[in-house]
Prior knowledge:
Strand order of the largest sheet: 6-5-7-8-4-9-10-11-12
Low-confidence stretches: 39-48, 456-460, 463-468
Number of strands: 21
CATH class of the largest domain: Alpha Beta
Structural class: alpha/beta
Helix content: 10-25%
Distance between the termini: 101 Å
Shape: elongated
Number of helices: 10
Amino acid sequence: MAKTKSIFQCSACRHEVAKWVGKCPDCGAWGTVNELAGSAAGVGAPAGRRAMLPSTAAAPISQIDSKVTQAQPTGVSELDRVLGGGIVPGSVVLLSGEPGVGKSTLLLEVAHRWANQREQKSLYVTAEESAGQVRLRADRTGAVHERVYLAAESDLSVVLGHVEQVRPSLLVVDSVQTMLAPDVDGTIGGVTQVRAVAAALTSLAKASGIAVLLVGHVTKDGNIAGPRTLEHLVDVVLQFEGDKNSTLRMVRGIKNRFGGADEVGCFELHDDGISCVSDPSGLFLHHRTDSVSGTAVTVAMDGKRPLVAEVQGLTVNTEMPQPRRAVSGLDYNRVAMVLAVLQSRGRVFLGKHDVYAATVGGMRLLEPAADLAIALAIASAESDTALPPGWVILGEVGLAGEVRKVTGLARRLAEAERLGFTTALVPPGLERSKSGMKVHEVTDLKSAIRLASLRKPRKAPAEKGPDF
Length: 468
């Protein structure tokens, strides 16, 4: 007689384990692992499985039509840039972001342009808002079109029925965490429900060739809510970022099976919709006629995209025993390290100064290539001497005061030259190019300060001896 084997399964995520445990190793839920009806050992083992005739025979890879997976432009240029040219038919794209950042506005614009330029139907399914709310947004942003169909529904079965009736080539679901699969246990937004909804929509996309755009919620930490398998099921994962105090929005590629995953698209959110920003460098520069002390311009790489950014520094005398250090848009620990090197190697003493460092336009500048620009901006503020006009500064600063190489230096200089900058301060070892810029190579921080005509290095203040 066959021996009976117990099976333990988590009621939240359906994960099976060999023995009972208090905490599910897959979803982390407590007290959800229950024993199911036993099964006979050996039944259904791999050795006992019989081969089945496949529905479609395997074909040589040379005979597979590659045109089926060619990307089709959406009409939103910055989104197409991140996607690698457009949306591939039969693919599933997951767009995640914080509430209110503009995900629904962007995807409604995509549905409108898809129907307008391709003369194909697009279906927008909203499970969070009513049809009237979406229509009001469409009126405000100019996204009303006769081939854009709208359905306010949260039941997955009904949504699949809408797809059969409308037969769209683009399906937008807002959002995957609010959809309900009626034949699956679990609450809306739970691990089991999200996984079942995503799997069903992925199967629909692969079987019918419909391109599916999913909206995903994020947690407090900024990660995509739901099981990790949600990111594995879809073909493309995009992160929609933006500060509520700024109109700038960025779509960043995290995963892309059809192209590079290091592209960034820039948008500007307005009251009347969202628009592409093909040249975002101008948003991060404060255009002025006169040079001002405490400012330096650098070029950051966001993915493969060079962005010219302005760094500002300010130093103020203080009598407090612990001077203040305030940072906005920069890495606090990185700025603290630059200040230490600036004082030790550059002989710019800031022990009696409050130091403020920030970026312009709400840009976040976290890469080491901005170290030299931060150092010279603060040195310029301390000496009240402006840097020469038309200068762009690039380089990583080490603890020994040396200026190190940065990646993509030629591309950074090309972007700076395009915007009218004439002189560059860069690390040594740059390969000569046809650039019309005047390039100065500096080996250490002290020579960079001297070349920028800031104040000459001075001696450290003498320590006051004890009174007798």
